[in-house]
Write a sequence for this structure.
């Protein structure tokens, strides 16, 4: 595991790019190595400061690519040198997508099973050893990044000086079905709030869905847009920045071409970009696996979001014309691997992963109950992605964790008010 480093300057900061080769599977059962990449940013005069490692939300998203220094990063650099880690399978860490994955579906599913939080923690520990030896460092994680930090506190707490989490405390032993029951309920609430603000949009969305059921409308990537896929635009309802952008998309979706009602090219282009998983296919493939805890939570996830949807009549696809229209949220469905060109080649792979019953538990409640690492976590009362109920239970289960419970933010609080939010977390840790 040799570390190679290159660097450059940006905006009063030194930027160093670290690459490290690590085992794909540290048990040795699956041979091979992969590369792990991290970008370090050091403010002028800050070379003596301790490290803060950023764990991006996801799964399957690369770390931030800042073109300027602002928000939470600007605040972090006042106290730390910041390491932006591309979690394995993403960004410049050896990527995993339809172009790079080899072998049959079974081999690909096995490969992807090594991209979970426990392996990300081990990668971070390898980087820590190379960069600072035995010295512990600070962690900051958003959403899935908080899941990784919870695994870190279970697996390698000696490597952690302090930890901060935003919108990312997972259920330690929550069955995946229960998680989705909570997120569907939260998504229904956000739908009601959205249509209360923009009541005309419910009629518009219903009209677009009915049109798609009877007419062929093609996205710029060539596939037909279905009404069920249109409904997945509701993932925007879980963020402050995306709430009203959905309204703007629905302002004028129709035009008339030779006397026939059609969707506008601009609407199809905007929707196509919002719905495509081409930039982050791993998000779709790995999403349910982040909730898998082996036998502790009932084994395989088996497309839990798809199954649990049937328990919520208001999300039914065959609801009548007088039924409320509902967008779905952070839910991945097997049929998306039949409709999205970026996911179609990974359909069988994703199905095998959803049926894996042997994915190990990621969190150790006994270790967390004896935790000695200072931890602060922001929990959002109305979070549509990470349920408040399970977050509060986990906050109670991690010894010494200091929660910040607020309704000031939606799931993207770190993006919309990162400087103030991180400052509050730091002050909470040090009070």
């Amino acid at each position: 595991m040799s570390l190679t480093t290159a660097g450059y300057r940006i905006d009063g900061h030194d930027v160093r790019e670290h690459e490290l080769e690590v085992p794909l599977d540290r048990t040795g059962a699956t041979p091979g190595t992969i590369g792990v990449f991290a970008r370090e940013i050091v403010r002028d005069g800050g070379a003596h400061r301790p490290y803060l490692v950023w764990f991006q939300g996801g799964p399957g998203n690369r770390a931030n690519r800042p073109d300027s220094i602002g928000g939470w990063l600007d605040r972090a650099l006042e106290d730390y040198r910041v390491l932006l880690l591309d979690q394995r399978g993403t960004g410049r860490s050896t990527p995993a997508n339809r172009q790079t994955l080899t072998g049959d579906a079974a081999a690909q599913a096995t490969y992807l099973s090594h991209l979970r939080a426990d392996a990300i923690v081990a990668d971070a520990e390898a980087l820590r050893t190379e960069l600072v030896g035995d010295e512990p460092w600070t962690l900051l994680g958003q959403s899935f990044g908080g899941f990784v930090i919870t695994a870190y506190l279970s697996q390698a707490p000696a490597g952690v000086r302090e930890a901060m989490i935003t919108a990312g405390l997972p259920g330690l032993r929550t069955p995946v079905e229960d998680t989705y029951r909570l997120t569907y309920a939260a998504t229904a609430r956000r739908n009601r709030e959205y249509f209360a603000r923009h009541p005309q949009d419910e009629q518009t969305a219903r009209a677009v869905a009915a049109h798609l059921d009877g007419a062929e409308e093609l996205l710029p990537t060539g596939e037909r847009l279905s009404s069920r896929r249109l409904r997945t635009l509701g993932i925007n309802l879980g963020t402050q920045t995306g709430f009203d952008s959905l309204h703007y998309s629905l302002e004028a979706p129709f035009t008339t071409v030779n006397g026939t009602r059609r969707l506008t090219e601009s609407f199809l282009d905007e929707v196509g970009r919002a719905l495509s998983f081409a930039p982050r296919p791993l998000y779709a493939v790995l999403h349910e696996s982040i909730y898998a805890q082996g036998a502790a939570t009932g084994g395989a996830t088996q497309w839990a979001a798809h199954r649990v949807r049937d328990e919520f009549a208001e999300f039914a696809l065959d609801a009548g014309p007088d039924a409320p229209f509902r967008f779905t949220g952070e839910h991945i469905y097997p049929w998306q691997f039949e409709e999205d060109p970026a996911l179609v080649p990974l359909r069988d792979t994703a199905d095998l992963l959803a049926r894996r019953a042997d994915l190990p538990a990621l969190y150790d409640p006994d270790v967390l109950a004896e935790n000695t690492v200072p931890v602060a976590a922001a929990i959002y009362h109305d979070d549509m992605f990470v349920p408040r109920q399970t977050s509060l239970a986990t906050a109670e289960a991690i010894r010494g964790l200091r929660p910040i419970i607020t309704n000031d933010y939606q799931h993207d609080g770190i993006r919309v008010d990162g400087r103030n939010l991180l400052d509050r977390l730091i002050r909470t840790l040090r009070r």
